[in-house]
Amino acid sequence: MSDWRKDSPYLPLYNQWFPMHRRAANREDCKVLFPSYLEFKKWALSNGWVKGLCVCRTDDKGNYSSDNARIDTRASNNIEKSAKTFFLISPEGNPVEVYNMTDFCKGTGLDRSCMTKLGKGKRESHKGWTRWVK
Asked: Cβ distance 119 to 131 under 8 Å?
C-alpha cells in the first residue's frame, strides 16, 4: 500500500514530508537532510511517531535531520513556536529569564498580558516586577 493513498495509516506522516520541504525552502538556515521519504518514515516510526503526532525541529531552529528533529504533539509544537524569552527583575531584585510567559504566569498568579507588555518594554512595572535591560 502506498503512503499517499487516503486509506494508508501513514498518510498523515506522508502529508508532513512535503510541507517540511516547503518550509525549509523559504528559510536560509533550514534544510531537509533526510535523503528520502522512506528514510524519513523509518526515522519517524523508530522515534515514536503515531497518527496525531508531528515531526518538529528542536527549538524550531536548524535543519530537519535525525539529530535535530523530534516527535511531538501539534499543541506542544505550537506553544514552542510562539513562546518567547523575556528578561525581568523580580520584586526581590533578582534577574529572571522567562521562557514562555504564559506558563510562567500560570505558576505565579501574575497577569500574562501585563507581564508580556513589561517584557516588551511597553510597561514600566507589574506587581514589583521590572524589565531587565541587558
From this structure: yes
Question: Which residue has 539529530 as its cell numbers?
Answer: 67
Find out whether 52 and 20 touch, Cβ atoms under 8 Å: no
Angle at 88 between CA 85 and CA 90, to 5 degrees: 135
pTM listed for this prediction: 0.64
Q: Which domain holds residue 68?
A: 11-81
Do residue 103 and residue 41 come from a single domain? no
pLDDT exceeds 80 at position 23: yes
Q: What is the pLDDT of residue 1?
A: 57
Q: What is the mean pLDDT of residues 73-86?
A: 83
CA distance 40 to 32: 10
